[in-house]
Structures are given as C-alpha cells and as structure tokens.
User: Fold these one by one.
Assistant:
Number 1:
Amino acid sequence: MATERALTELGFPPIGDQNAVFTDGHFPIPLSNNAGEHRVSTAMAYLTTEVRARPNLTIMSNTQAATLILEGRRVVGVRIREGSGFRELRAREVIVSAGALQSPAVLMRSGIGPATELNRVGVEPVHVLDGVGKNLQEHPGIALSGYIRRDARLKHTRRHVHLALRYSSGVEGCGQGDMFAMMATKSAWHPLGVRLASMIAWVNKAEARGYVQLASKDPLQPPTAELNFLGDYRDIERLAGAVKLMARVFMTDALSSLLSHPSPSSYSGFAKKLGRQTVKNFLLTAPTAVIIDAIPYARKLFMDIAVANGMRIDQLLEDDEALKDYVRNSAFGQWHVCGTCKLGSPDDPEAVTEPSSARVIGVEGLRVVDASIMPTAPRANLNIPVIMIAEKVSAAILAEELA
C-alpha cells in the first residue's frame, strides 16, 4: 500500500501485529469484523440464539435505568422507565454498565457521589464519593484530508481503514507510544467521502481531565459532560506535532502522486449530518462529487472552503500559534470516553470502585462494569479493553458464587 511505503519512507518500520509488538511502527489495523467485513458488536458476539433462549435472561429494550433503590448503603434494585411509566426491579446485586457518561449519572441520581454536586441538583446524599463523575478522559484527535486520484480510490469493500501507526511524540513526560494515527481510504460512505482520504491522529494517553455533572435529578434529563479537551498544554503540543507529521506523510513520494490538495479538516456538524446514510444525503453529495472530478478549479474551491474552512496547511506549518489555534478549535473525540468511576484503593480520594471486584466503595450490592472504571485511558481503542473488564469481573463473580 502507498501509505505503508510513505510511513516506511519517514522511518516508521512495519511491526506486523500491534498487540504482539509494542514498539513504534505501522501495522494492518485489527477490527472486530466478520468475514463479510461488518463490525461485530458485543450483542452480536455474546447474545447468540442459544444465549437469548436462556430462562434466566431477560432483555428489555426501550428501557431506561432511572435510579438505584437503596436501603441504607445497600443497593437492592433499580427503578426503570418503560414507556411513560416507572417500575422497580429488585435484585440481590446490581451491575451498572451504562458507560462513562451515564454510569456516574445513575449513581449521582441515586445519592452516590460528591455532596456538593448532589446538593446542587436537589439530590440527598446517601453515600459521599467525591470521585463519581470526575476523571473524564478521551482521546483527542485531529485530521488532514486530501483528494484521491480516481484510480486510487477504494471501490469494493466496506472496510476503509487498513493501516495504522503507533508513534512517540517526544513531548517531555509523555512516554513511549503515546500517539496513534490511521489512514482512512475514504472519509465517508457518500460520493464525496469516497473521493477524500483522511489521516487521523490522536493522543493515545491524554493528560487533560474533565467531568460529568447532572443537569437535573430528573432521570429524563441527560447529564452534561465537560471533556476539557486540550486542558493540558502537552495535549496541544502533541496534536500540533501530529499535524506536522501528517503533512509530511501526505507529501511523501509514495502519496503525493495519489493525493492532491492536502488540507486541514474537522468533523463539523455538517459533516456529521452527511454521515447519516439517507437518499437525501446521497443526492446532496453526488452532484458536487461529479463536479470536483471534472473541474480542477472547483476541486480546489471545494477543498479550500468546504474541507479546510479557509485554512491552508502551508500557513499552519509556518505559524505555530495559528497551528495551535487550529488544534484547539478542531480537535474531536474518538468516542473513547472513560474514567468517571475509576478503580482505586479506598484511601484514594477520587476512587469509586474496588480494583479486584469493581464494587462501588462503601456500598453493598453494587458494581460498575464499563469504561468508566478505567483509572486512565489505555493506549488503545476501548472496545476490547471493555470486553476484557467484563470478562474479568464475570470471572470474579463466578468465583465468589462458587466459594
């Protein structure tokens, strides 16, 4: 592949398997795909026909966990919303697996969390745990895009990410392998996306921390999240360096003949709307795609205005302050939020869950099992680490039952 040659040209060696070799280098990116190249969710992988037929399993769709039911400091069930009404489910033990944004919200609505935060929304504190909702982490990223020559476009496969890169930023105190990048051979499903390649780089070990708060004690009101992206200068420095690196990749001999108009890009609200697979979005993008193929000047205008929003990569590379402003304004998340019910020892003032069992500290009958218990974000996408957490805690529960 051209991107393999480009990265090798810049001194990044092929390392084969990212999960077996932990040095810097490029590798074919592993995905949880089946033979038909469809993503395989945990529901598809674990909730097989046989599992769904078990008499001790009930799957309830269109149901929302509102609050936990507590008797003192023991959780004895959960209050759920079905349709327009609420009802209670009693249980010997409750496991909250609502994710790093919603799990802390469930705890706080139930009176478990920082006293000041609970009092702010009128929830009576039952058990004060200052760490609930804090330590929110993500992998902030930045992207460059380029127009793909016709004969270099991806045609007959849904899978559009084939190659990734692990590298070290060199920023003081950030360690080895703190950065990750990948080349997307098409940027979206629609006709415009097929014509655009994007290289995306993100901070795989971010330093900034945010928080989750309740907007209201009403379970119908979603919590608010302050990601505090780039709240640490090291994250800004690393993403600015990532832009420079990606520009060098686009300018290599291996890629410069296949990609033109390398441009800073961002995941804007309009791009998100176009990401929905609808007939309307196809009809919106198809004429522009034909025009930029046929008319070079229109292609340049499209890249300069629609993709780069008036910014030019050469200007960013020449002006460090402009580059950092671009990073601050254009960084986006990778859907890897975690950390808001972190594991830790009882003497850690921000710990929420016990390391070996994922039990909520100071509360009986309650565990949290999802990405929110991660003390720090791993240098990886969260899919497999979350599955590992679930498998580990499942084994601990079985061991307790058999003891």
Number 2:
Amino acid sequence: MIDIHCHIIHGVDDGPSNIAESLKMIREAERLGISQIMATPHYQECIFGLERVEENYQELLFRAQDYDVTINLGFEVFADPNNHSYFKYRKKLSLNKSGVILLEFPFNTTPLKCVDMVRKYRAQKITPVIAHLERNRSFINRFDIFVTFIKAGCYIQLDAASIAGVYGLKIKEFSRRLIQMKLADMISSNAHCAKDYLDWYSEAYKNVSNWVGKEEAGILFHNNAKQLLDGRNSDELANRNILVWERMV
C-alpha cells in the first residue's frame, strides 16, 4: 500500500514530537503492509519553515534505513487562492517533486474560490489532490459544490479515520457514498502518531473491502497513488471522475 498523506516528520508540525515517535509510525506502517509513505507536513507560508523540515526529514531517512518502507517528502499545502507564491514553489512543495500537490481546504467554509486555484494548477501542469475533502461541511451539505471540483480536474483523497467512523456517522456515510460512486481516488492515513495507523488504517481497509470489494480497495490504497506519483496517465485518471459523474446525470 502507498500512503500519500502522513505527518511522520518529527518536530515540525502537529505530528510526532521526536524521532522515536516517528520510528514507531514507520514500524506500524510496515506491519500493515505499507511500502511507501509520503511525508506531508503542513505548509502555510510564514508558519512552518521548509529548512527545518528538510533537516528533520534527512535525520528520519538516516534512522529508518533498516525498515522496508520508502519515505518521500511532500507537503500538505493550505489552499489560499490569494497566495500566488505556491505556483513559484510548486516543485518544492509537490509530492516527491512529482508535480502532484496535496491541498488542504478550510473545514467550515465554502471554498468556491479554490476552484479557480485548481484550474490554474491544471493549466500549469500541476496535479492537485484535495486532502480529506469528505470532512468539509460544504461538500457534505451541497453535493453540487463537490461536483464543481471534480469537473475542475482535481483528485480526491479520503482519510482512513473518516472511513473508520472517527468523525461521526455522517462523514463515514459520505465517504462510503463517494467510494461506491467511484468518485474518490486515494485513501491515506493522515496519521500523526503510530496509534492512528493501529486504530484507523486497517479498519478503513476492511470497510472499503466490504463496501466495494478487495480489488477496488487495492486501487484506492495503492494503484491510483502509484500511477499518480509515477506520472503515468494523470490526465486520464483526472478525467475518470468527470466521466463517471457525467454518466450519472
């Protein structure tokens, strides 16, 4: 499995406070069968420094050499449609410098202005992945807003905790709906500690396997992420959700 959203770098955000906790996360991920982790610390300009992230990431790589898990660097970028510096630093902020960028939207506001941001990314050959979109109230209450983002050509990443029911039945059912409609692309841990993997990740995999079968679960937990990070057929994958929605309406 490939986990494209994980706060595993110590001492840089609300993830682990020390290297020992980071290593516990890697051990738990390896036990669950995760072969690749994208370390995605929060990025919001003037709040989290890139220099410290790089230093702690290199320390983590050195200490994690004995584990059979590849750890790459990316960021969870707070989506600010008024900040154009993201375009300037797009390579540095993307997942393993792949041109794929993980965006976080505010949870309690309607992020319609972010649609234009997504379109601009696509126009500049940047592939936007929207993190834990299922937890945003606007999308839960108004499905037409969700569809607007699909048509803009972004990818949808769901949190394992949402699928496991950590945030309540409403978010769990919305996640199930998106998965069964084939409108979600990837499921990630968004883990901040080893317990997050232990309590949520395997439970999410079981739920998804029960909802849509193990083959589709494999696509959501591995195949789509690999395809995206490898840079293969990214436009085709983005268009899949658009075509699915158009067939339904």
Number 3:
Amino acid sequence: MHGGVKFYRGSAAAARSYVEADHSRADDYYLAEGSGVAEQYAVTVGDDGLRTERRPDLDGASYERWVAGYDVTTCQAKGRLRDDNHALRFVEVVVNGPKTWSLAASLHPEIADAYDAAQERAAVEIIGWLAEHSTTRVGPRGLQVQEPVEKLEAAVVRHYTSRGGDPHRHLHLQVNARVFAQGRWRGLHSVGVVDSIEAINGIGHAAVMCDPEFRRVLAAYGYKLDAESGEITQLARFAGEFSHRAAQIGRHVDRYEAQWRAEHPGHEPGTALRRAWDRRAWAEARPDKVVPTDGAELVDRWREELQDLGFRPPTVAARLPTAGVGRIDRNAVTELVQSRLGSRRSSWNCADVRGEVERIVAAAGVVAEPVVRRELVEDLTARTIDACLRLVDRDNAPDHIRSLTSERVVAVEKDLVDPGVRVTVEEVR
C-alpha cells in the first residue's frame, strides 16, 4: 500500500458526485451505476478497548448527510458545523496493493474474493488504529490541548478499476472530520492523520500480505510473492503494459477536457460528457478492441490482453512461506527499525515505527491470523519505542509528534557539528 492523505474541503453535494460518478467508467460494469453505495463504520474507544460497528451502507443521500457532518439516522448536526466551502469534511487514504494482485484477481474469481475480503479487513484495521491514535483540540483558542478521540466514523468506497479502465482493486477510506471527545462532537486534528501515514500504509500492506486466506488461495494457483515489494513474480513483467495503456487513456481524456474547456469557458463538464470522453478514449487507445458493455466482457478483455502479451498461468501450486511468529528475532527487528528510520531522518514518531515494523514483518514471510500479526507488531513497536531516545521530556507528547531518535543519530549529528565531542540526550532536549 502506498499513497498519502487527501483532504476533502467543500460542499457535501459535490462529494456525493465523487461516490456516484467520479470513478472509471469501467467501474460501472461492477457497481450499480449511480447507486453511490459506501460502507459505513463507527469505532468507539473505551477503557475495555475498541468497539467497531459496521453500520448500514450509505446511498447517495445519506452519504451526503454523512459528509456534511450530520447523523445519518437522526439528521442532527454533530456539533457546530462550518458551512463554508473551505471546511474540512473528511480525510482520505487509498487502500491498495501491487497491480499484479489485481491482475491475478481478474484471472481467478477465487483470488478476487479473497483479495477483496483481505482489503476490507485491512481497512477495518486502519480505521481502528486511527481511532486509537487520533486526537482533537480542546479548550479556548490559544490554550488548546490535544485530547484522544472517543468515537470516530469512516466510510469505505470500493473501486475495481483505475481511471484508465485497467484492473485495480482499491478502497477509498474516508475518515469523517467530526469526532467525539470530552462530551461533544469536535473537529479531527487532521495534521496528526497526515503524520500517521507510515503506519497507515504499513498496516494496509502487511494486513493483506500476511493474510492467511489470501496467501493460501494465491499459493493454490501457483503464484509467488516477492518478499520486499509484494508483487506476484509471474505477473510482474506484464503490469507495466497495463499501466502504460491506462496512462494513454488518461492523456486522451485530458486532451478532450482541455479542448472542451477552451470552447466553453466558465462551464463545468457533466457526468454524461465525462463518460463519453471515457468511451472515446478507450476506443482510441484500443482501436482493435470492442468497448466492453458488462463486467464479464471487461474481464475477458483483460485476460485476452494478458494472453496476447505471453502470460500463461502457473500449473503447479506454490508453497506458502514458513516463517512463523516465533521465529522472528525481536531484538534484531528493533535494531533494524532504528537503523532504517535513522537512515532517512533524524527523528520519528510512533507511527513511523509501526509502519517500518509492519513492512519488516511482511517481508519476513509471516502468514498469520490478523490478531496474531497485530500482537506481534504491537510488541515489536513497543520494544522499538522503548529503545529510542526521547527528544521531548514529557510523557503526554502526542503520538504524531516526531519526538523519537536513537543514540546513533544523536552521535552522528553531534560529530558533524563538533567532531570528537560526545553528546548526551539531555543536550539534545
């Protein structure tokens, strides 16, 4: 999983079109056109841990209310809401994986089902992590302090293709900007979410990479994963061709839009026009291919293209990795995490540590139930944090603040400034 955090500011009505229309035209073959369905989750953080609730799906109207900051059931506002076009409505991350995973899913329905299920479990895990680590600001202006959230809500929108019409199964995970803490609804501290991106991406990747059912089905069909990248080795050399075609379609659409805007200044293209551009771009990029009319035909086109490129599915089952949780050298992981983080920056936060731990566990070939993997990475994260030096001399520093470093980083930086003089952590504070 890769990518950053996107902020959505503006009207809820415009966000509704994001769900109902702002996806590849090819997605219409999978999703009921115009239905705008999004999965809805609510997480409550209490003394007894997390409680994740799967709420009824959102249609276009209820999604619009959710984005605007209203309770979907009661239609009551969640606290004092801003009504200007610059108000933050939600923050979004994309739960995705290597393109070869989507290619394999297009070839085998059983892999598709396992991949979709693993992605959904990954999204729920990310939502839970954010609920535990997100904060909101409490107090009068100028004297605000950050407090942990007690309730967080999220929506998940599923797409099956890229905007260019290639296989690309991914989820848009949107965290509502209204969170509950200290007795009322407040605004999410969005900077903290941005600073948590390493953990978000790490969890999203490892949750799928280590998923037993997903890995079992891949192995049953003979597919092997590269330990570092996660790419399916048998499909890796074909992914670029699909990406190239998607980029070509995107360039065509951009050209049509630029020409239309030049001829219609001050106007915005509608949904029907954008879909016409998509169909035209598809036909222009693939002149020898009939534009698909349903999901089955689209999948047949992908399979046909893979065959034309020379791909042949494996005929012998692959072996699953055998690296168990008990074989992980926890002290070595702690040292490796500090070394990797220190090679990129001089300080880091708890989310940076968690993300690096997740990537190491995934690359080690661990295949385990989600609860087992979480216990492992939480222990490794805690060990690493305890082994770090703290640059902020207080126990209640927010998790997103990059207040951790290592003795080696401190020594190297001091040596660069004043060679031959030994430094202590107290001097750094």
Number 4:
Amino acid sequence: MIVASSSPKNSKKYMREKLAEIFLLLTIFLLPWQTRWIFSSPMIGGEVSQYGTLSLYATELIIIVVVLLRGRWQPVEGMKKVIQAGYFLLGAIFFSLAFTSFFSIGIAQILHLIFAFALLTILCDVRTEIKSVVIAFIVGLIIPSLLGLWQVIVGSSPAFSWLGLSTQDAQIAGTAVVETLTSRMLRAYGTFPHPNIFGGFLAVGIVSLSWIVRTIKTKRQLIVSIIPVVLFSVTLILTFSRG
C-alpha cells in the first residue's frame, strides 16, 4: 500500500495557520492587560494627559503577527458587507483629521482603531475557531477579576508598568470611588484604566459564558462554567459601572 505524504508546501501552510491560531488566542487572552510602549506623554496643567499619550499596545504587535501569518483574508459568509462598511468608516475618520488641531494624537488614535478593525477581520475569518476565542477571552478575564476583588477589599492597587497597571488609591482625588458620608470605597479597576471599561469587558464575558453553557454536556463542565459566572457577576457589581 502506498501512503501519500503531504508536500512541504502544505506542511508549511499548516504550520503558519497553527502559529496564527496560537497568536490569535494569545491576543484575546491578553486583551485585558494594558501593557504598552509609551513614546510620548504630553503634560497638561502639570499632569500627564492620558488622552494625549502616544503608545503602542503589546496586543497590537501580536495582531500584526497574526495578519502576516494568515495572509489573505477569507471572510465568513455574510460578513463581507460589514467589513466593507468598516473600511468606509475608517476612511471617514481619516478625512476628519483634516479638521483636527492635534494631528499626531489623531493619527495615534486612528492606528488603535485600525488594529481593532484588523482584529475584527481576523475574527470574521473562516479559519478562526470562535469557541476557542471565546474560551481564551473568558480565561483571560479571571485574573483581572480576582485583582478587582482584591482592589476593593484593600482600597488600593500598586503600579506595575510591565503589566500596564497604574497606581490607584481610594484616598486620592480623581480615583473612581463610591463615596459615603464616612468612607471612600475604591471601585474595581482590574487591569483597566477605568472601572467602566472593566465593566464592559465583564458584561461581554458573562454573555460569552451564556453562549458557552449551551455546549455543556457534563456536570463537571457545568460546575466549571458556574465559577467564572459568579466571579464575573460579583466583580461587575463592584465596578459600579453604569454601562
């Protein structure tokens, strides 16, 4: 019996796709972390302006790797028009730069939008396994959720530049807190720059879990899925996010 062996070309293509899948899951897992290279921090009124800070996120670099490994986009049926609408939106945003007084800041923010749009196209690719992406997103939110609970209990959070964490203290003015007549309670920040953003991620995480639950077949899987549901729900309440 003759066994046909795969050609080196097909083997190389398979390896590229597997690497692209690994880097995609890594991107989704690391989305909650704000690790970034800051190359410009303008000062306004003696304080660093977060809105004017020019930076490049670590996850954006990984997105570039995924795009290069994947090559030509292979759209999921029905999503091509959505992506075309996205191109139109990006074009309109580029056009708006002609009316801005802060051109460099505008360019930097548009670059973030381009990376986000690139991630959307990757997710809308036929080669993307959505269930694996959802699981990576859920697992990636567990540590930020535990950190958020700890922040509320302690009332502060230390800075850690390598992980993109900034100092938060309930006693410092400007920090997002729940204030009563006698005390100030720090809202859960997790790994995010503001509790409202954290709340948005947690809400998406809970919805994603409700989708995953539909595929559960054993009691053990049900128990495993209940734990993050409770964790995300409690943390979401502690963000006090109106969103």
